[in-house]
Amino acid sequence: MSFTVVTTGLTFPEGPVALPNGDVLVVEVLGGTLTRVAPDGNTTVVAEVGGGPNGAAIGPDGRAYIANCGGMIGTEVYGYVFAGGIPDDYAGGSIQAVDLDTGEVETLYTECDGLQLRGPNDIVFDAHGGFYFTDHGKSDRTASDRGRLYYATADGESIRLVAEDMNGPNGVGLSPDGSRLYVSETYTARVWWWTVTAPGEISGGLTLAGSGGGNFLYASPDFRYFDSLGVEENGNICVASLATPGISVISPDGELVEFVAIDTDGDPGITNICWGGHDMRTAYVTASSTGKLLRFDWPRAGLALPHQTATV
Predict the structure, then answer these.
(1) Which of 169, 229, 233, 280 has the greatest number of C-beta atoms within 10 Å?
(2) Among 60, 58, 51, which residue's Cα sits nearest to residue 92?
(3) Could you tell me the end-to-end alpha-carbon distance of the chain, in angstroms, rounded to an integer?
(4) How far are the Cα atoms of 7, 11, 43 from residue 79, in angstroms, in the given order?
(5) Is beta strand 80-84 parallel, antiparallel or unpaired with respect to 73-77?
(6) What is the pLDDT, as a whole number, of residue 141?
């Protein structure tokens, strides 16, 4: 599938959000910024959020909500940039909200019931104005956290744990009718799902020993690491992958619809996908290890997210 390089020079971009005016927001994990990319490729820093902004979504108040992992260490291998580990200045993860007009940053959550947020990774709002987010955890050369899944409100007043004991939860998304919650796991390259029974309440249990109590949907048949995900209007789940770079398009029944291989200067780090445009058929993909934002004419429409048109 052909694509256009919108811009280059980003410092490990992730969490793209397409805005109604054609701009795209990205977070720069190793730069600590929320950045606006214009259609012509020009970039403007919206806010210095610090730490390691890892995912973004527009909330009901028009602000950009950031899943901030607290920072990662950037390393270069064979000319490609990778992000991971725990930097010396790490002070914990957080959920932040950024005013797109002023750049003002508000920190909403740093813990849940006394447990520090370790590495918030991706975030999705539901139709009720609350949001789910994954906590990927942190790892070093001797130990690795077990991942968690949370639900919180946009006013900063309520946060609760909804799933735990996961192996690197990364992407998170909702089905078009909001009845299913999907999570991709990095290290197992699996996708799990739960039934949403009420805002912030999920039910799994159909798979014995499913990660986080979730139901098994799909596992990659070959070597790759799953990163973030997006959902198409028809309900397909599109999961970006590292090592085998591209997008796996998975049906709600767990069948592989197609794998879209993506080669941009051999970048092994395809991390995120989102959609915009008047017909939601313009896909934006982050190629993180070479610092690019890519644009595709996608064959199917992406799902219009709650609050996506709330701001420009």
Answers:
(1) 169
(2) 51
(3) 29
(4) 18, 13, 23
(5) antiparallel
(6) 83
pLDDT at 240: 98
Query: Which CATH code, of 3.40.50.300, 1.10.4160.10, 2.120.10.30, 2.40.50.140, is assigned to 15-297?
Result: 2.120.10.30
Of 130, 248, 262, 117, whose CA–CA distance to 184 is shortest? 248
Mean pLDDT (whole number) for 178-198: 98
Which pair of structure tokens corresponds to residue 112?
């849940």
Name the pTM for this structure: 0.97
Using DSSP, how many helices (H) and how many strands (E) does the chain show?
0, 29
What does the pLDDT look like over 108-159, one tens digit per residue?
999 999 999 999 999 999 999 999 999 999 998 889 999 999 999 999 999 9
List own/partner pairs for 33-38 with CB under 8 A and 24 or more apart. 34/64, 34/66, 34/98, 35/10, 36/100, 37/6, 37/7, 37/293
The amino acid sitting at 63 is R
- Measured between alpha carbons, how far is residue 153 from residues 76, 113, 132, 158, 199 in Å? 37, 15, 9, 6, 10
| CA–CA gap between residue 31 and residue 4 (Å, rounded) | 24
Q: Please state, rounded to an integer, the average pLDDT across all residues of the chain.
A: 97
Q: Show me where the domains of the chain are located.
A: 15-297
Q: Which residues contact 101 (CB under 8 A, 6 or more apart)?
A: none
Q: CB of 103 within 8 A of CB of 52? A: no
* Main-chain phi, psi angles of 288, to 5 degrees: -75, -35
